[in-house]
């Protein structure tokens, strides 16, 4: 699978279950690379902290692990380093800088230092802006997808891909079984009236 095709599928939000096996193999390969990757290679420490905070707000820990628990920020840095080209990386890091500009204008501090309520307000504003652009694109005859130059859809999609390609996301959220616990091929069929004899 070509790099551009893989990124197009990721950006359009193609469901992981429907994605070609070659894309799934690429994402599994990315997960293996995370095991040996040390410090972030594209994002600086502040950008990395901002991505980690935003990802955790998108997918917080509940009864299942959150984005931080599955290494979403490390996955995002890896994808930016290994898969994205320089204009895409620049768009992403410029978007991170804009998040700090917005937060500073509203609250007098950068995103990471803002309170959880203030951080949530910034994410809600970014989501509303993304939705409004998608509606305008749809009304103008476009396909309704967010414009490719938007940072926030890019971050959200990377966060979701990071989460659902992790073991915890795949098994605890999607209930995906790589190898089923058991297979009972000769089990009798059971109906509402009891076992069927055949």
Topology:
Elements: H1 3-11, H2 21-36, H3 45-58, H4 72-82, H5 86-107, H6 116-139, H7 151-164, H8 167-173, E1 190-191, E2 194-195
Antiparallel strand pairs: 1-2
Helix pairs in contact: 2-4, 3-4, 4-7, 5-7
Largest sheet: 2 strands, antiparallel
- The computed structural class is mainly alpha
Task: Report the span from N to C terminus.
Answer: 47 Å
How big a fraction of the residues is strand? under 5%
Radius of gyration: 20 Å
Low-confidence stretches are 1-18, 144-148
The helix fraction, in percent, is 55-70%
Q: Globular, elongated, flat, extended or rod-shaped: what is the shape? A: globular
Describe this structure in words.
The protein is mostly helical and 198 residues long. The chain has one domain. It is built from eight helices and two strands; from the N terminus they run ααααααααββ. The chain has helices at 3-11, 21-36, 45-58, 72-82, 86-107, 116-139, 151-164, 167-173; strands at 190-191, 194-195. It has a two-stranded antiparallel sheet with strand order 1-2. Strand 1 (190-191) and strand 2 form a beta hairpin. The model is unreliable at 1-18 and 144-148 (pLDDT under 50).
